[in-house]
Amino acid sequence: MIHIRKLVGSATLFVALIVSASVEANEPKPIAAEPLTQRHDFDGNVSVKITQNLEGLPEQAISFDDASHLTVVRFTIQPGAVFPWHTHPGTVLITVTEGEFVFIFAEDCLDREYGPGDALVDPGDTVHTALNPSRNEETVVVAVLLGAPAEGALTIPVNEKRNAALDAECGIERNGA
Predict the structure, then answer these.
(1) Which listed residue, of 18, 130, 142, 161, carries a Cα 20 to 30 Å from 114's Cα?
(2) Is the CA virtual torsion 57, 63, 115, 139 positive or negative?
(3) For the segment 30-50, what is each residue's pLDDT rounded down to a tens digit?
(4) 15 phi, psi to nearest 5 deg
(5) Residues paired with residue 50 on neighbouring β-strands, in sequence order
(6) Other C-beta atoms lying within 10 Å of the C-beta of residue 132
(7) DSSP letters spanning 120-175
(8) H/E segment holding residue 61
(9) Once rounded to an integer, what is the mean pLDDT over residues 48-54?
(10) Is 46 exposed, middle or buried (0-12, 13-18, 19+ CB in 10 A)?
(11) Cα–Cα distance, 68 to 76 (Å, whole number)
C-alpha cells in the first residue's frame, strides 16, 4: 500500500509539473519573432543606397554592394518589453502594424515614437534598441532585412556590461522581459 501511495504521489507531482510547464508555455514571449519568409536571394546583383536625416543625428548613408539576401520577420512585442541593445549585419526596413513602437539609437538616446502605418529605417550597423511603451497593448512590427547573411545571426547583441551601461545612460528600465 505504501508503494502505491508513493506512485500516486509521484504521478500527481509529475502531472502538476506538466500542467505548470504548459501554462508557462502558453504565456507569450516578451518578444516573439516569426519568420514570414526564408532567407531569399534576389535574381542578379542588387545594390542598395539609403540616406536618412533624423533629428539629433548626422545624416546616415547606408550603402552596400551586395544586398542580395532578404528575409522578412514579424515581431510581436508584449507591453513593456525591450529589445537588448544590438546591431544587424544588414539594413532593416521596419513598418509598425499594431500598437506603439519606440526606437532608440545609443548615439543620442532619443525616443523616436512610431505607431500603426509608420515606417522607419534601421541602418543596422548602429547600436540601438526598441521597445513597446504600452502597459496593456501588444506591438507588432514587420521587418524586412536587406543584406541578411545566407546563414547566421540576424541580430548581434552587445555584451551584458555594455547593455546595462546603455540602459542606465538612456534611462531604460526593463521589467524582467
Answers:
(1) 161
(2) negative
(3) 999 999 998 887 777 777 788
(4) -65, -40
(5) 62
(6) 26
(7) EEE-SSS-EEEE---SS--EEEEEEEET--SSS-S-EEPPHHHHHHHHHHHT----
(8) strand 60-64
(9) 81
(10) middle
(11) 26
pTM, 2 dp = 0.78
Of 91, 131, 128, 127, nearest to 114 (Cα)? 131
Is the C-alpha dihedral spanning 56, 57, 59, 63 positive or negative? negative
| Euclidean distance between CA atoms 88 and 106, whole angstroms | 14
Cell numbers given for 88: 544587424
Query: For residues 77 and 31, is the Cβ–Cβ distance under 8 A?
Result: yes
Q: Which distant-in-sequence residues (6+ apart) come within 8 Å of 146 by Cβ?
A: 48, 67, 69, 70, 90, 91, 92, 93
CATH fold label, 30-170: Jelly Rolls (2.60.120)
Picking from 32, 34, 117, the residue whose alpha carbon sits closest to that of residue 71 is 34
In angstroms, what is the C-alpha Rg of the chain? 21
Least Cα distance to 58 among 102, 15, 105, 91 occurs for 105
Helix (H) or strand (E) holding 112: strand 112-114
